[in-house]
Amino acid sequence: MKDIAHTVHIGELIAVSKVFHLNPVRMITLLENDLMEVFENKEDFLVKYGNKKSYDELEDWCELNNGKIFTKPK
Which domain of life does this protein belong to (predicted)? Predict the structure, then answer.
């Protein structure tokens, strides 16, 4: 992912890092290397992963109150 600063706010990064049990620097590295995804809204997430009760292809995912979804693939 290029230009993370325009996609992810520091507050979002800190909140999600606590959910995923990662430090913010590690999250930035994962985002830069496309090992973690950020979706601007739930519709974009559903286009890629579908609407399911569980997502076996993901280790974890987190939806923020602003609609952004962060995913942590396995």
Answer: Bacteria
Residue by residue, DSSP assigns 12-49 as HHHHHHHHHT--HHHHHHHHHTTSSEEESSHHHHHHHH
Which residue carries 């996609």 as its tokens? 7
Domains of the chain: total: 1
Q: What angle do CA 20, 26, 28 make, to 5 degrees?
A: 100
State the CB neighbour count (10 A cutoff) for residue 72: 19
Q: pLDDT over 90 for what percent of the chain?
A: 81
Q: Rounded to whole angstroms, how far apart are CA atoms 42 and 32?
A: 21
- Which domain does 57 fall in, by range? 4-73
Sheet strand arrangement including 37-39: 37-39, 69-73, 58-63
Mean per-residue pLDDT of the chain:
91
